[in-house]
Design brief:
binds adenosine-5'-diphosphate, five-stranded parallel sheet, single chain, alpha/beta, Rossmann fold, binds magnesium ion
Length: about 425
């Protein structure tokens, strides 16, 4: 999946519409995690230093087509201004005469940010008239918003149909890293899948199965697998209508020779809240009125043993209710262990908002090979689905046939 990138475009003096993913967490009008902003900086910096006129566009939260002051992009623009060391003005609206004027006044090497695209319902509807208005701002289109590439919205698909579309550097890197997992992972290849529910992750398990050597299951989704193994899970989060599916996945793993690690001991709690009573017990003995909230030490040992030789690892989803510190032990431990695997040279890729949060909280992010900025998008990609925002970008033309012919020539003359 080789797409043309900003490097392939002549951007000097051009107005470039850049779809970025600045959907970041805010608290009291301040950005609490700026990773997504920083991830878009290489593309922005490249465009500015090459004399482009940069029009940034993003969504933030779910305003559902209405202006919400709490979801204005001003705090994002402030953070980006600090990072770039220059002022990044944000328009009052993505559309309107004032914005049209502001775009017209942009000179080479200047930048502005359009206000939250999702203040217009037309954005998520991929409304052609809205896409046309956005496209009219620019000469070229760049998509650096991998996290939104699984959505066919006006700014991810509509505008890309109207202008020559290119991938940004973040998009390029995300596609390269995730393709590596799909195409030729260095073996052994292991996946760790946790998080709340199995339902959203079944397809990715199916797709990965033929490629994997080891599958580690944890978090709430492992509970449904425990049911499939005939164990009781008490009051734990579990999907009783998915037990058959879980059984099917386990059978497929056995058939494919994939080693599956499921919890053998778990932390159970009286309630899924802070300050409640909790204890570690074998997975065979879950009391009827307790909740599984984390994996136990014996399980972590098994997981680490199974991952010890893995050369490629994909991790999605925490191993427990890590938002509550007493139940974060398994998730934090696996994050630390995977960092040591990456230090040892293994390719370790993480996707998923909550798993990534667990890593950044511990300051481990830099040690991983790749941390995807797109949770849902990375899963859909690994399901083997074509993401609409990626499909619309221009493929790099195949190398000229001449070059191939010369390579084959000696073999031909030898016969
Ligand atoms: P990611 O964002 O990394 O893809 P998910 O969104 O699928 O992960 O799942 C994260 C959620 O799963 C967290 O809110 C966490 O509390 C929850 N979770 C993990 N283990 C359990 C469990 N045993 N019971 C209930 N919820 C769980
Ligand atoms: Mg999540």
């Amino acid at each position: 999946m080789d797409k043309l990138t900003v490097r392939d475009a002549d951007v000097t003096g051009k107005r470039v519409f850049v779809r970025v993913d600045f959907n970041v967490p805010l608290e009291d009008g301040k950005v609490t995690d700026d990773s997504r902003i920083r991830a878009a900086v290489p593309t922005i910096h490249y465009l500015l230093t090459h004399g482009a006129r940069v029009i940034l566009a993003s969504h933030l939260g779910r305003p559902d087509g209405k202006v919400q002051d709490g979801l204005r992009l001003r705090p994002v623009a402030e953070r980006l201004s600090q990072i770039l060391g220059r002022n990044v003005p944000v328009t009052g609206d993505a559309l309107g005469i004032g914005t049209v004027d502001a775009v017209k006044r942009l000179r080479n090497g200047e930048i502005l940010l359009l206000e939250n695209l999702r203040f217009h319902a037309a954005e998520e509807k991929n409304d052609p008239a809205f896409a046309r208005q956005l496209a009219d701002y620019a000469d070229l289109y760049v998509n650096d918003a991998f996290g939104t590439a699984h959505r066919a919205h006006a700014s991810t698909v509509g505008v890309a149909k109207l202008l020559p579309p290119y991938a940004g550097f973040l998009m390029e890197r995300e596609l390269a890293m995730l393709s590596k997992l799909m195409e030729n992972p260095i073996r052994p290849f292991a996946a760790i899948v946790g998080g709340a529910k199995i339902s959203g992750k079944l397809k990715v398990l199916d797709t990965l199965m033929s490629r994997l050597d080891v599958l580690v299951l944890g978090g709430g989704m492992a509970n449904t697998f425990l049911l499939a193994q005939g164990k009781a899970v008490g009051k734990s989060l579990a999907e009783h209508d998915m037990v058959e599916e879980a059984r099917r996945v386990l059978a497929a793993a056995e058939k494919a020779g994939v080693k599956v690690i499921l919890p053998v001991d778990v932390v159970v709690a009286k309630e899924v809240t802070r300050g409640t009573e909790y204890k570690t017990i074998p997975a065979e003995k879950i009391p009827a009125s307790w909740h599984i909230v984390d994996v136990g030490r014996a399980t972590l040992d098994l997981m680490e043993e199974a991952l010890a030789t893995a050369q490629t690892v994909f991790w999605n989803g925490p191993l427990g209710v890590f938002e509550i510190p007493s139940f974060a032990h398994g998730t934090r431990a696996i994050a630390r262990y995977l960092a040591t695997r990456a230090d040892a040279g293994a390719t370790v890729v993480v996707g998923g908002g909550d798993s990534v949060a667990a890593i950044t909280q511990q300051g481990l992010a830099d040690r991983f090979t790749h941390i995807s900025t797109g949770g849902g998008a990375s899963l859909e990609f690994l399901e083997g689905r074509e993401l609409p925002g990626v499909a619309i970008l221009q493929d790099r033309p195949a190398p000229p046939p001449k070059a191939r012919a010369t390579k084959r020539a000696p073999a031909k003359s030898a016969t």
